[in-house]
């Protein structure tokens, strides 16, 4: 699943590329992708809305639109956004030829200009298509169909984005705030960090990296952390997320940026999916366990399961 760095990186690209553009209209090829309102109202209300700004909240992209509306995009496991230049055409003939194949693959796209640099492989599984007034096309692709796109009145933003905790790259993410969030929690610190009501946007990759930074075992009870460990953990969260953004996110599966490029952060992780490789600090082999049904990676020497 795209986590905070992947979402933030895409938000920054969108901010540069489409703020000021107008959405002429949209096409929905998998109706369940639209979570709110119903599809007919979504299509009617999105027409001729200008993009005034692009933000991120946790793992959500938030587009501020004219008419006091917000468009929220939660990509879940395999959702991506791809911006096509003018000149691309859409082919929906598969819908009539083979309904089962259409439900899996969606439409096809083609361009007469072979030098436009877009890999046709990245255009598969389109679920929603936003046609911009300037001729460009913003695609939402999602092979596994778990992502959701919603359109809300701005006054209902709190409802649309309910249940999220502190932003880890914001001023409110202090050592004191993190300590309050962990106090009294018996659960494993790895599970607590993945709770979006505690820290918005933090996911499996960067939780592993943050715990490694702070030398904290992922099974430690959250409430057992000392004041110094909480301080180091906060530093680790910020450092891991910042590094992820700098390197365009972590691509090892489906994630791609707005131009179809994979992020480079996988080449900079210390423990995530590094099981069997030597720890960069001590040389001990990185191990993998399962915590809360999530694969978890740590150094057994640097991150001992002990505390006072």
Describe, in plain words, how this protein is organized in 3D.
The two termini are 35 Å apart. β4 and β5 form a beta hairpin. 27% of the residues lie in helices and 23% in strands. The longest helix is centred in the last third of the chain and has 20 residues. With 308 residues, the chain is α+β, with helices and mostly antiparallel strands. It folds into 2 domains: 157 residues, Alpha-Beta Barrel (N-terminal domain of MutM-like DNA repair proteins), CATH 3.20.190.10; 124 residues, Orthogonal Bundle (Helicase, Ruva Protein, domain 3). The model has no long low-confidence stretch (mean pLDDT 93). The strands form 3 sheets. A 9-stranded mixed beta sheet has the order 2-11-5-4-3-1-9-10-6. A two-stranded antiparallel ribbon has the order 7-8. The chain has a two-stranded antiparallel ribbon with strand order 12-13.
Arrangement of strands in the largest sheet: 2-11-5-4-3-1-9-10-6
Strand content: 15-25%
Largest sheet: 9 strands, mixed
Quaternary status = single chain
The number of helical runs is 9
Any idea what the CATH superfamily of the largest domain is called?
Answer: MutM-like, N-terminal
User: Kindly state the mean pLDDT as a whole number?
Assistant: 93
| Alpha-beta classification | alpha+beta
Spell the H/E element sequence. HEEHEEEEEHHEEEEHHHHHEE
CATH class assignment of the largest domain: Alpha Beta
Helix content: 25-40%
CATH architecture term of the largest domain: Alpha-Beta Barrel
Shape: globular
User: What value does the Rg take, in angstroms?
Assistant: 21 Å
